[in-house]
Amino acid sequence: MNAAGIVVEYNPFHNGHLYHVNETRRQSNADVIIAVMSGSFLQRGEPALVDKWTRTKMALHNGVDIVVELPYAFSTQKAEIFASGAIQILHHLKCQSFCFGSETGRIEPFTISADRLNEKKQALDEWVHLFMKKGSSYPVSQTLAREKIFSDDPLPLDLSKPNNILGFHYLTANNALPNPMKPMTILRKGPGYHDQKASGHIASATAIRKLLFDHKEVDDFLPDSVRSFLMEQQDIGLLHSWDLYWPLLRYRLLSIHPNDLETIYEIEEGIGPRIMNAALKSGSFQSFMEQVKTKRYTWTRLQRMMTHVLTNTTKQEMQTALKNLSFVRLLGMNGNGRSYIRLIKNEITVPLISRTAAGTPFLELDIKASRVYASAPSAPAHYTERLLNHEFSAPPILF
Amino acid sequence: MNAAGIVVEYNPFHNGHLYHVNETRRQSNADVIIAVMSGSFLQRGEPALVDKWTRTKMALHNGVDIVVELPYAFSTQKAEIFASGAIQILHHLKCQSFCFGSETGRIEPFTISADRLNEKKQALDEWVHLFMKKGSSYPVSQTLAREKIFSDDPLPLDLSKPNNILGFHYLTANNALPNPMKPMTILRKGPGYHDQKASGHIASATAIRKLLFDHKEVDDFLPDSVRSFLMEQQDIGLLHSWDLYWPLLRYRLLSIHPNDLETIYEIEEGIGPRIMNAALKSGSFQSFMEQVKTKRYTWTRLQRMMTHVLTNTTKQEMQTALKNLSFVRLLGMNGNGRSYIRLIKNEITVPLISRTAAGTPFLELDIKASRVYASAPSAPAHYTERLLNHEFSAPPILF
């Protein structure tokens, strides 16, 4: 059996994702589609709209054969680390290819750019460092550094587009493997990643979340099965967002010792007092973020910092976790996926975790993240208990 | 001018407290009544029903001339430390006498018992240590130790009664002063401290809180002025109790590192896993406490532990704070109180703090406790902001 991998968040699953699954199957001719999916907290430093089990069901209902978790240590990171974790997991699972959506839609610009950037890596890093020192954010510094180095002969890839950036890092991580997978890309349909407007039957996940929070119609943009999962969740009144966790984050910031705040991953020296002061003066997550934001710290970067404060993830924990991506956690699979897993079981070199318990090695951070995710103060008790129990006692979802 | 001191929590102020204030004035013939009052968290390890500013107003409306704060480091402790902090503060403020309610109502049994217990202090401590080692709680071990030592000639004071215990410790702390104040006691009217039933126009604060939470009539047991303060608070829907803080405590316990839990004041080695496990399995504070409770750990002691977990108060912070009771924080006063303060201002040897700011020396723990107190997740934003602002920018309440 032949497997193709995809890297997803499904926040929530929509028609664009369905197109991605179908195109991956068509282009790769794979027997099995494996999705590596962020768990409770996502790449932009946000809690997932709905829990990972529900998002796994969405995937399995729409053509994905196996869903595995991208661990917290990788899912809440900048593109480079996020991509490296996802690619390693797909490789652990013996995928022969992987396919990502991009603003470009052709793979050559990625392969060419990855090679050329790789050649100039050292010079590039030096320029990035310099621009950051001058006060620019990391993404802006990268753009400026690339402009400096490739001014005479520009790269064939527009690296200001978020999916192109991710794709570029998938390729770089893949090239670093002993036997790389075959990279493929499809053109993203419909509006861009950050766009809040919808067009046709495809809208970005950002746009769909906005419609959901505004209690507006989203049916056009979702497969039928996803609609019913989201309606159930809306009935409980629990679409997760930072607003839901703001009372916990604020409490934490109002009671943490300044020295302890500095042990949290991504918290740099000097920003602590600014954060604690803003927490004191802000009645909402939005106004808190507006007070903390500077040119140097992008919104996304600050959200990631706050995710780590919320989950109490220290620099030391993160260092350990980033070194140890030597396991795969199964979230769900269908019959086809089960056959594939049976087939590769003896070939794969890392533990395949299908049921957790307190103290399961590797999973400390993910278990903590799930516990915090389940602790939204406004959640009904039975909902919190269900999430907490599922994390520990449930086997992967079988479809 | 001549001042008499009282030690109070006013949780809430009721007719029994009014009687205490009036009797203190009558018996002491003092010009000024000074109340040292617990702030946000109380001796039994609970959040105060209403904030300290509102409770200060209750006191000033009912004959108290000056209200000062018993700092967090003392207000959330067993009787011995609680009493020692309160007596030191009254002494700083040049009180000539102090008066407490007791189940006995005469001062001789206290003076005699304090002297006799003082003589046998070492033997007593050894017995207490022994009984605790065998698994008895601290209060039970003390009772057993006293029975051992004074079996032939029992003390003239029933030290199983909570107000007698406190009174006894007031006397002990007072005796340790270079120039002790004159101790006085009045007979507590009406039902006992822990009683949940009311009789006549006096009911215990515990009984009144229960009636309030059950939405039952309490008017008979409260002075008119207190009634309106409580009604305002009930209108916001915010009578503070552990239930209000359970989502924060649970979140904290589900995300704290086991090693960090052991740095918290009163957390003894070995109890950490028991607490964290109970947090995972409990949907309410009540069920959490029932799961953690053992013969060794009384309900009150566990509540104090959980108060320190909630406020993130470490052993080290507490040690420092307990050593430094060299300030007095004014919460409110009337005209008479102001005259007294003007009069003694130059005589008193410690700073009199009437307005705080971040970084005010001595007040770190109290400021943190107030911030946490204000962070109840269900509180309306304007209520939280008002409490947070008051802690920092408001002068003492003038009446």
UniProtKB/TrEMBL annotation, chains A, B:
<protein>
    <recommendedName>
        <fullName>tRNA(Met) cytidine acetate ligase</fullName>
        <ecNumber>6.3.4.-</ecNumber>
    </recommendedName>
</protein>
<dbReference type="GO" id="GO:0000049">
    <property type="term" value="F:tRNA binding"/>
</dbReference>
<dbReference type="GO" id="GO:0005524">
    <property type="term" value="F:ATP binding"/>
</dbReference>
<keyword id="KW-0436">Ligase</keyword>
<feature type="binding site">
    <location>
        <position position="163"/>
    </location>
    <ligand>
        <name>ATP</name>
    </ligand>
</feature>
<dbReference type="InterPro" id="IPR014729">
    <property type="entry name" value="Rossmann-like_a/b/a_fold"/>
</dbReference>
<keyword id="KW-0819">tRNA processing</keyword>
<dbReference type="GO" id="GO:0005737">
    <property type="term" value="C:cytoplasm"/>
</dbReference>
<dbReference type="GO" id="GO:0016879">
    <property type="term" value="F:ligase activity, forming carbon-nitrogen bonds"/>
</dbReference>
<keyword id="KW-0694">RNA-binding</keyword>
<dbReference type="GO" id="GO:0006400">
    <property type="term" value="P:tRNA modification"/>
</dbReference>
<keyword id="KW-0963">Cytoplasm</keyword>
<dbReference type="Pfam" id="PF05636">
    <property type="entry name" value="HIGH_NTase1"/>
</dbReference>
<feature type="binding site">
    <location>
        <position position="188"/>
    </location>
    <ligand>
        <name>ATP</name>
    </ligand>
</feature>
<comment type="function">
    <text>Catalyzes the formation of N(4)-acetylcytidine (ac(4)C) at the wobble position of elongator tRNA(Met), using acetate and ATP as substrates. First activates an acetate ion to form acetyladenylate (Ac-AMP) and then transfers the acetyl group to tRNA to form ac(4)C34.</text>
</comment>
<dbReference type="InterPro" id="IPR008513">
    <property type="entry name" value="tRNA(Met)_cyd_acetate_ligase"/>
</dbReference>
<feature type="binding site">
    <location>
        <position position="101"/>
    </location>
    <ligand>
        <name>ATP</name>
    </ligand>
</feature>
<comment type="similarity">
    <text>Belongs to the TmcAL family.</text>
</comment>
<keyword id="KW-0820">tRNA-binding</keyword>
<feature type="binding site">
    <location>
        <begin position="7"/>
        <end position="20"/>
    </location>
    <ligand>
        <name>ATP</name>
    </ligand>
</feature>
<keyword id="KW-0067">ATP-binding</keyword>
<keyword id="KW-0547">Nucleotide-binding</keyword>
